[in-house]
Amino acid sequence: MPFTANRDFKHNPRLFVKAEGVYYTTADGQEILDGTSGLWCSNAGHCRISIVDAIKKQSAILDFAPSFQIGSPLSFEFAERLIHMKEGFSHVFFTNSGSESVDTALKIALAYQYSRGSGTRTKFIARERSYHGVNFGGISIGGIAANRKQFNNLLNGVYHICDTHNIKHNAYSKGEPEWGIHLADDLERLVVLHDPSTIAAVIVEPLAGSTGVLIPPKGYLSRLREICDVHDILLIFDEVITGFGRLGTAFASDYFAVRPDIFTTAKGITNGTVPMGAVFCRNGIYEAFMDAPESAIELFHGYTCSGHPLACAAGLATIELYQNEGLFTRSAELAHYFQEAVHSLKGSRYVVDIRNLGMVAGIELESVHNKPTVRALEAFKQCYNKGLLVRATGDTIALSPPLIIEKNQIDFIVDVISMVLRNIS
Ligand SMILES: Cc1ncc(COP(=O)(O)O)c(C=O)c1O
User: What value does the mean pLDDT take over residues 138-157?
Assistant: First the structure.
């Protein structure tokens, strides 16, 4: 079981057998309201018929096509569709997950520096308390000790700036916190320490979800961009959870009006239906690889299932659904109601902070002495038993409901959490 206490799970398994709209159904027939879009995936809700039909249809037309030296029109069509969603970005590279997108982005950054004659730029700067998936690149740049300590062999030349989370200054901020733009200057410190000519890229999640919903302070991301520009360093945004409407815009970079050079996506790209990811590259990156002789492979990278026909069909249907139903706008319109609803939990037992942006919220609980994570995990289990799926990250309850959620369903989320906070020890 991925990221699960296996023995604990086996004592009391939680199994979903069906899903529709914003509800899962468990093996014993209980309905569970999905407060997390599965795992930040099902932005349009579950089992949406147009996506189901597109996958069914495609599986009978072209079930698989090799992706090395051969293509299928659908992958080019989907790539075109995606780059139309993001001005200034000319190409995407298809992967099968967020972790693969992250490692692909790191490799593209290194290869780009090499191709443009800056082969000394091999280091990465990432951030503490970041999550970038579980492949070796991702855990090396990630800022979670537990995700590394069993594995030892990590990428060399990775450094971390400080994280932006600070309850003392920013507790109960609604939206982007006022305090903390200066934390971006930690990047300048590391760049000077290691010399800009050795640094390939800086990678951050514009909004960190998996490490407890950390919202960037006002102006922080712009400041990172400025520092990268001064030193000619690539800026990579990991948008695996923020892509496709979570903040009320197509991508978080649109919300913050900060343009990265490369950004990763996955999850919501197919509404979670078929595993897929895409790495977006700004204009000029692809071209830097095109100096090699025409018969030579320009990028020694790719996956058997890059641009898989079923994933592309699902992705095309997903983007159409997002647009037809105006789900990114809906997300923006619901964000205020969602914000006020979750902040109404202020004052509940154990709550030390509530933070939110777009359709994401984190409710941080005071940890049990010497037993971090135990309290939020207990809250997760009790919410589940009361018909609500939340995510426990550390001692924070994270919420990221499907963008089709209704206001009364948001009220249900808050009511259940409120009840659970009265119950847990
Ligand atoms: C920011 C970020 N990057 C990467 C990943 C990894 O994605 P996956 O689990 O699809 O490999 C995640 C997963 O939650 C994520 O939140």
Answer: 94
Residue 17, domain extent: 6-47+326-423
Q: Find tokens 């309201």 and name the residue.
A: 33
Q: In terms of domains, do 361 and 279 share one?
A: no
Residue range 43-79, pLDDT digits in tens: 999 999 999 999 999 999 999 999 999 999 999 999 9
At residue 424, the pLDDT reads 95
Residue 222 counted as domain residue? yes
Same domain, yes or no: 150 and 251: yes
Note whether residue 1 is domain-resident: no
Please list every protein residue whose CB sits less than 6 Å from any atom of ligand 1.
97-99, 102, 131-133, 205, 209-210, 238, 240-241, 266
Ligand 1: nearest atom to the Cα of 239: 1
Q: Into how many domains does the chain fold?
A: 2
Q: Is residue 75 part of a domain?
A: yes
- In degrees rounded to 5, what are phi and psi of residue 163? -80, 175
Q: Does 164 lie in the same domain as 60?
A: yes
Q: Which residue's alpha carbon is nearest to atom 3 within ligand 1?
A: 132
Asked whether residue 153 carries a pLDDT value surpassing 90, the answer given is no
Give the Å distance between the CA of 277 and the centre of ligand 1.
10
Q: Based on the domain organization, do 217 and 262 belong to the same domain? A: yes
